[in-house]
Amino acid sequence: MDFPTFPKKTREWDDWESLDISEKKLKTVLRSILKESGLELDELYEVYEGYWQASAVNRMGNRVRIVAWTRYMTSVGKEEVEDLYEEMLEIRAHHAVFITTSHFTKEAQEFAESLPIELVDDMRLGELIPEVDIYEVEDIFVTEKGDKEAMNYFKTRRRRKLFGLIGEEEEIDYVDRRYLPYAVYAIGKPKRAQEEESKKLFVDLSTADIPYIEERELRSANTLRIIMELPEESREHLLDLIQYGGLSLKHVEGKHLEILERKGLVVSPKSKSDEKSIIQIMGEELGDTLNVFAKNISNIPQPRESEIDYTGFGHHEAVSDAGGGGRVRPNIRVPDVDRSFDLEHFLNTSMDVDENFDADKPKYSAVELRNVLERLYDRKVEFKKMIYMPYYLCKYRTLYTTRYLRYISPSFRKEIFPPKTAEYDIYEFIDKQPAIPYVVLGAAIFFMNLQRIEETLHLFSSIFIFAAVSLVVGVILKEIFRTPRRVPRYGGSPIKYGFPSIHSMLSAGSLGLIFFVNPLFLIILIPLTLLYIYSRISLGVHNTWDVLGGAFIGLVIGVLCGLFVFQQLNLPIEVEAFLTLLFFILPLFYGRWERESI
After folding, report:
1. What residues pair up with 178 in beta bridges, in sequence order?
2. What is the Cβ-side half-sphere exposure of residue 348, based on CA atoms within 13 angstroms?
3. 194 and 268 share a domain?
4. Residues 6+ apart with CB under 8 A from 508
5. Average pLDDT rounded to a whole number, residues 560-579
6. DSSP labels, 329-364
């Protein structure tokens, strides 16, 4: 098809008003528009007011010329668009863009429809403005470490030759000060008062990673990055599956289903389930069951629950629909946006941008990410602002290789994170391995009473039943109350909430049970219980009410187990022997289960 030509334009530019749009904002708008045509903006310069020329690079690496007008009229008609097209032909440009804050007439739109001319009216410009505004940085996070600490960090992580002989010796090429650009979003309207501060989400625009706080660390969830790296149609298929929980195989078949299967993002009748250990399967099933049970008891509407565990639902088999065809289900978990994702709640911020830090170039637009987030959470997502995270980037090099390493050290708020005292390591050990002191005490008691094996087995089976009941009750209560922890813990497990403290439940509850066995044992257990309760507050993972409430509930369960389990329940010796074995073995898997859950 031959493009039409026009006589020399005679319209007066004096009739047009230039739009008040900065070069930075125009670049952002053009990037978004040109991206749809597979073009990447390279250069932009203003010829005169309201008249811009630009160049872009296509996927083949060829340079493309572009002309852009930014003008305001009460309405832009066909004649004005004809003028732009004539200008495009005159300077031999390949594309043209007309931006206005008014609107284009129907005739103007019909004229540009078959031509390489992009019309941007007030409505479309309004959609792009949030993307432009994100580059106006309002705040930055404060870094806790300076240049010296960063250099020491990179030096200690430089790869050296093994025994001074094998491998390559890395040298530090340079260390750069940089900023990560974060877009801040609000996910829907909180359903509970305690969630008012918990629905803010930060997204790294250069990678699409979602940062969150776990213990005293800044970690990242990569769900959004995985989705954004997919081909567009594959991404749409996956988002549909996430929104609707699964679709019939006939709606997803094709190369995009194969792409999703290869990346392990879906489970379909044609794909094999991921292999998982029996402990993982039992743990996931127990967690799902407790979730459903707790929600039914609480009778409170909850958002779709999903932990930060990206191994997915590989053990679930695809079910058949009414037509006999299989169903395809998503195999990816979307992070549940709770307080741990609200970085500003935990980190210090400032309004002073350091000119020595260079900002990373955003790879994704805030509007594009917002649209995907709305599909993921099935809730309204609102862009709030832009904020920077300072970090240091080190380039290592050898004769043949290059490697980059980032060092991010944000400053945590001291009113939230307690200082590390001399006893901190003890508290942290109790946090990570709470059962070990009790297992050691139990082992000593077990071997001291081998001559009374039946009574000993009955004691430990009763203790195991008490611990199991306490854990189940504790998890259910956590799901019902869903109170946030002061310092986030166990992000991907059902015990991430605060009330009640399960550590306090088990340690205080053991007092109630052991009282019916031998009150003299309380001489050892009472100081240990007080240490457990105090450690939870000192670490900042619980408040006073969490531990006191947990201790009271645990004590009640312990007394009831002492009365009705230890004193009255007599199980077959084989069963008691099995439960005793579980008492000593299961704590060995606790650390591994915790690491996989987070």
Report:
1. 358, 391
2. 14
3. yes
4. 529, 533, 550, 551, 552, 554, 555, 558
5. 91
6. EE---PPP--GGG-HHHHB-EES---TTSEEPPPSS
Residues 386 and 469 reside in one and the same domain: no
- Say if residue 443 is in the same domain as residue 312: no
- 272-302 pLDDT tens trace: 444 444 444 455 545 555 554 444 444 433 3
- Domain holding 32: CATH number? 3.40.1350.10
Q: How far is it, in rounded angstroms, from Cα 146 to Cα 519?
A: 56
Beta bridge partners of 67: 53, 96
Number of other CB atoms surrounding residue 587 within 10 Å: 17
* pLDDT band, residue 131 (cuts 50/70/90): low
Residue 70 lies in a domain: yes
Residue whose structure tokens are 């863009």: 97
Structure tokens belonging to residue 403: 């490697």
* Average pLDDT rounded to a whole number, residues 104-109: 88
Q: Do 468 and 512 share a domain, yes or no? A: yes
Q: Is residue 416 part of a domain?
A: no
Residues 109 and 222 in one domain: no
Q: In this structure, which amino acid lies at residue 466?
A: F
> What is the C-alpha to C-alpha distance for residues 504 and 492, in angstroms, rounded to an integer?
21
Phi then psi for residue 395, to 5 deg, are: -105, 115
Task: Give one DSSP letter per residue of 88-126, joined into a string.
Answer: HHHTT-SEEEEE-SS-B-HHHHHHHHTTTEEEE-HHHHH
Residue 291 in domain: no
Contact status, residue 200 vs residue 377, Cβ threshold 8 Å: no
Cβ atoms 494, 291 nearer than 8 A: yes
Token look-up 């005159």 returns 90
Q: Which two tokens stand for residue 83?
A: 């003028």
Distance CA 415, CA 424 (A): 17
Question: Does residue 546 share a domain with residue 429?
Answer: yes
pLDDT at 14 over 60: no
Instruction: Of 56-60, 184-188, 362-366, 387-391, give the range with the top mean pLDDT.
Output: 387-391
What's the domain range around 201? 140-159+166-281+304-407
The total domain count for the chain is 3
Q: Can you read off the two tokens belonging to residue 43?
A: 């250069």
DSSP label of 451:
G
Question: Sign of the CA dihedral 475, 481, 487, 493?
Answer: positive
Tokens of 400: 């043949």
In sequence order, the β-bridge partners of residue 419 are none
Residue 465 has pLDDT above 80, yes or no: yes
What predicted TM-score, i.e. pTM, was given to this entire model?
0.66
Map tokens 């039992």 to a residue. 282
CA angle 9-11-13, nearest 5°?
Answer: 120
| Mean of all residue pLDDT scores within the chain | 80
pLDDT in tens, 140-169: 999 998 889 999 999 999 988 877 777 788
Residues 239 and 269 in one domain: yes
Residue 105 lies in a domain: yes
Q: Residue holding tokens 């106006």? A: 136
Q: Do 383 and 433 belong together in one domain?
A: no
As a whole number of angstroms, the distance between CA 196 and CA 214 comes to: 20
